[in-house]
């Protein structure tokens, strides 16, 4: 993990991670506003990949693009510095934060792609699944003044997350699946355990394949968002984003960042 492990809010993280045979705690900062880069996870990841074991379950816990965004990427990834490619509604006061977020996402893309490349280089029989635990509003229309998350007033970007699966050729040959048919399914990461178990070929008493994104038994359900401490006030995500089964954010034209540094 590259998140803090010696703060009150991450005590549960440390408790769960102690169940693993090996742990790597890379972030000993007391403050979240510290320059701790996710590239630090690549060497421990390569070390574990090289170890001799018949089966491996590896969890890589990134710091990702949490605020404050300017601390999430090294200087060579500061590619967005002006208004080029940014939405017209982003003000000059908002622009430094907006650009820092896009720079952080660019660096996060580099880290995730590097994890996939290192995994693929081992000719594995397995898969790599990447997702974020939440989204973030960064001056997104129509509420262009909102920054961060507010469960009392949920918006589309706060709950729309990246969800990426890489299957090795060996794994796909042994467990052939047509993933094209599942791309438009409305899905909540609260059902991740059922999807992951299906992908891994595992079963357990509470396994519900109707909640597995990749199962032929999948059943679409309303996706409820809001403050989980106030369940009576949760709202259907389709009211926040009409047509939520699609991929609205993916249609936004990407900003050109130029060639990435190695």
Automatic annotation (TrEMBL):
<keyword id="KW-0472">Membrane</keyword>
<dbReference type="InterPro" id="IPR058130">
    <property type="entry name" value="PEA_transf_C"/>
</dbReference>
<dbReference type="GO" id="GO:0009244">
    <property type="term" value="P:lipopolysaccharide core region biosynthetic process"/>
</dbReference>
<dbReference type="GO" id="GO:0016776">
    <property type="term" value="F:phosphotransferase activity, phosphate group as acceptor"/>
</dbReference>
<dbReference type="Pfam" id="PF00884">
    <property type="entry name" value="Sulfatase"/>
</dbReference>
<dbReference type="GO" id="GO:0005886">
    <property type="term" value="C:plasma membrane"/>
</dbReference>
<keyword id="KW-1133">Transmembrane helix</keyword>
<keyword id="KW-1003">Cell membrane</keyword>
<dbReference type="InterPro" id="IPR040423">
    <property type="entry name" value="PEA_transferase"/>
</dbReference>
<keyword id="KW-0812">Transmembrane</keyword>
<dbReference type="InterPro" id="IPR017850">
    <property type="entry name" value="Alkaline_phosphatase_core_sf"/>
</dbReference>
<keyword id="KW-0808">Transferase</keyword>
<feature type="domain" description="Sulfatase N-terminal">
    <location>
        <begin position="4"/>
        <end position="201"/>
    </location>
</feature>
<protein>
    <recommendedName>
        <fullName>Sulfatase N-terminal domain-containing protein</fullName>
    </recommendedName>
</protein>
<dbReference type="InterPro" id="IPR000917">
    <property type="entry name" value="Sulfatase_N"/>
</dbReference>
